[in-house]
Amino acid sequence: PLPELQGLKTLKVAFHHATKDEVIIHNIRLPKQSTVGDVINELKTKVELSHQDAELRLLEVFFHKIYKIFPPTEKIENINDQYWTLRAEEIPEEEKNIGPNDRLIHVYHFTKDNGQNQIQNFGEPFFLVIHEGETLEEIKMRIQKKLHVPDEDFAKWKFASFSMGRPDYLQDTDVVYTRFQRRDVYGAWEQYLGLEHIDNAPKRAYAANQNRHAYEKPVKIYN
Question: N or C: at which end does the chain have fewer Cβ atoms within 10 angstroms?
């Protein structure tokens, strides 16, 4: 019935599987007064989790940067899924056990336009826990394992810490933690670890290319 439909809101959510390299789009329809927690509970009935106790979170992604982790209590009425990409994913175990001296940092892929020195972000942004005293070399090993990048390709990657759009290139012996000292920085999405490498993904029209992975993730759409 129409009155009931008018009281509903549909959100398009891209679910990223924890271990499979695929993205599945789900249309979640719930009453407007529902919360993000309700969206997550609804998603759990539709998606395949890596283990039954897996917890999910909902992120706001725009132009290959993570702008927000939605609190479970937030009402869905004001969430815009036309402009942003809503991404659901499992919360990694390492993030649940984060220590007082650990930092959760943003990690983005980027290329640099040699002519104009312009930074272009691409692919799937993600979070990474870094530990006090950890060098870039140690962090690189974890990133390579997480993204399943072949050695030959990974050897060409460069790493930089970014603050307000400016890259500061890192050496293997640099302690990355010292570059991310400030907590709760305004515009935290602009302070990130950048992975510089060629964007191998074929260009796609889907969602303004927002959901392209550095290594193309197949997208399936379920209603």
Answer: N
Domain that holds residue 120: 94-215
Question: Does 20 map to a domain?
Answer: yes
Q: What percentage of the chain carries pLDDT values higher than 90?
A: 33
In terms of domains, do 70 and 121 share one? no
H or E element, residue 27: strand 23-31
Same domain, 102 and 211: yes
Among 19, 211, 192, CA closest to 104: 192
How does pLDDT run across 4-31, given as a tens digit for each residue? 556 888 899 999 887 777 788 999 899 8
| CA-CA-CA-CA torsion sign (128, 134, 140, 146) | negative
The residues, any chain, with a CB within 8 Å of residue 208's CB and separated by 6 or more, are: none
Q: What total of structural domains would you count in the chain?
A: 2
CATH number assigned to the domain comprising residue 14: 3.10.20.90
Q: Which amino acid is at 69?
A: I
The most distant pair of C-alpha atoms in the chain lies apart, rounded to whole Å, by: 64
State mean pLDDT over 187-204: 72
